[in-house]
């Protein structure tokens, strides 16, 4: 079976579903370049829990976890099937890694899942299993979680972390396409350089080492899925940055593809 890469996707605002812009084009190009996965396991910045949860719904609902947007956004459905056998496999891998997961048989697909997947695979015909992140446990925990999922890549499963390279909603309406937040480009460049150098230690310590870390991420949850993808990538990670622009002057829309050799479980 063809080995799948691991991905980190910056999913942007929910409005990306209606106005996909450059990230839509980049994801469409990426879908054409990738082998077709038999299934997708995705960790979203919008499913937070104290311990790992694994979606186990056979038919996951589309969750509209936002407010104040046009009705057209609430009308969107992403009717991808679940895969209960894969959900059990994911839970088993996390259990073997000592992460004490639980299955959530009711969990649907939040916008951190369906917005980017709708741009990657608009037919919604690939099974999707969501996984929560644990914001209280920091980057190293998410890296361990991704590492536990790495064997799935040799089983035809695409492992994705969905978040945003920069995410400071306090800056909404403070910047725009003509005036970019001053911290965005330095943070983008630092992440790209550290990934190219395979400097996992620095990336795990980004709060202390990255420029403007607190402004780029007042809270961690939108960067934590990057560590899931990194953990699934193996060594070397072989990270490839795909520039998808900067939305509203403060949301960096970078995508990363990792083609490293995953560890065996």
UniProtKB/TrEMBL annotation:
**Keyword entries, A-Z:** Dioxygenase, Metal-binding, Oxidoreductase, Zinc
Q: What is its EC number?
A: 1.13.11.-
Q: What class of enzyme is it?
A: oxidoreductase
Q: Does the keyword Metal-binding apply?
A: yes
What the entry lists under InterPro entries is as follows:
Extradiol_dOase_DODA (IPR014436), Xdiol_dOase_suB (IPR004183)
What are its cofactors? Zn(2+)
Question: In what residue span(s) does the Extradiol ring-cleavage dioxygenase class III enzyme subunit B domain sit?
Answer: 29-235
Which Gene3D superfamilies does the UniProt entry name for this protein? LigB-like (3.40.830.10)
Regions annotated as coiled coil: none
Identify one Pfam family in the record.
LigB
Q: Which GO terms describe its molecular function?
A: dioxygenase activity
Spell out the family assignment given in the record's similarity comment. Answer: Belongs to the DODA-type extradiol aromatic ring-opening dioxygenase family.
Q: What is this protein called?
A: 4,5-DOPA dioxygenase extradiol
Q: Which organism is it from?
A: Luteimonas terrae
């Amino acid at each position: 079976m063809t080995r799948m890469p691991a991905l980190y996707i910056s999913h942007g605002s929910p409005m990306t579903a209606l106005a996909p812009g450059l990230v839509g084009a980049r994801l469409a190009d990426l879908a054409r370049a990738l082998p077709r996965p038999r299934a997708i396991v995705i960790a979203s910045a919008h499913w937070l829990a104290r311990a790992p949860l694994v979606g186990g719904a056979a038919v996951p609902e589309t969750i509209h976890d936002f407010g104040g947007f046009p009705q057209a956004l609430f009308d969107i459905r992403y009717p991808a099937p679940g895969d209960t056998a894969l959900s059990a496999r994911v839970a088993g891998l996390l259990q073997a890694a000592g992460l004490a997961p639980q299955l959530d048989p009711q969990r649907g697909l939040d916008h951190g899942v369906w917005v980017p997947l709708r741009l990657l695979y608009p037919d919604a015909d690939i099974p999707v299993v969501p996984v929560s992140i644990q914001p209280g446990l920091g980057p190293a925990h998410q890296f361990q979680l991704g590492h536990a999922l790495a064997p799935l890549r040799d089983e035809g499963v695409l492992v994705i972390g969905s978040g945003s390279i920069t995410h400071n909603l306090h800056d909404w309406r403070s910047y725009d396409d003509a005036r970019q937040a001053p911290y965005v480009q330095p943070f983008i460049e630092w992440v790209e350089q550290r990934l190219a150098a395979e400097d996992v230690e620095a990336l795990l310590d980004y709060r202390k080492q990255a420029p403007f870390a607190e402004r780029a991420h007042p809270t961690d949850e939108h960067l934590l899925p990057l560590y899931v993808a990194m953990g699934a990538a193996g060594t070397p990670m072989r990270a490839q940055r795909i520039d998808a622009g900067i939305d509203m002057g403060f949301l960096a829309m970078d995508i990363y593809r990792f083609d490293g050799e995953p560890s065996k479980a």
